[in-house]
Amino acid sequence: MTQLRIAICTVSDRASSGERSDASGPALAAFVKARGWTVTQQKTVPDDQQAIAKTLADWADRNSADIVLTTGGTGFSPRDVTPEATLSVMEREAPGLAEAMRAASAVKSRHAMLSRARAGIRGAVLIVNLPGSPYAAVENLEVIAAALEHAVQLLQDSPSAEAGH
User: Which of 18, 86, 95, 123 is the most buried (most CB within 10 A)?
Assistant: First the structure.
């Protein structure tokens, strides 16, 4: 088992201004810790493309995490710009992760098809957008969790990455 380092960025105007508490970031942190992984960073930013992109790029470029998770800002609202911010900082896309999350969620909710979540790579760091609701964020992370350790091994060019293939 790989000891993953996870950074969590909650994207919410109201949570970043203190108008409401962040429930999604802590829910994701609890899931991460329950798997034996480490939360290295946790931050709440407003629904602002530059603020989101700056956080994602900074964390990836400083190699402060193997995976950066975002929660929030993936819908159709005019303020939902997390996918655009992610796209602006990623070097390569990882579309299978977002596709798998949407497909699994579609079985439970017809609104899953409205997700604009992205997943991609910057350097050796994987960035994944998750929904803003605590339940949906954790549910989507559960869908891809089994593939994350292998993804990080591949990104780090680990000799064990291809074992058993």
Answer: 86
Q: Beta strands of 20-117 (E only): which ranges?
A: 38-45, 67-71, 92-93
Contact 82, 73 (CB under 8 A): yes
Residue 165 belongs to a domain: no
CATH number at residue 135: 3.40.980.10
Of 89, 97, 93, nearest to 61 by C-alpha is 89
Q: Label residue 164 by pLDDT band (50, 70, 90).
A: low
Q: Taking the model in full, what pTM does it have?
A: 0.96
Determine the structural domain holding residue 127 and report its residue range.
5-159
CA nearest to 56, candidates 46, 69, 47: 69
Tell me the pairing of strands 5-11 and 38-45.
parallel
pLDDT at residue 158, as a whole number: 85
Contact 134, 23 (CB under 8 A): yes
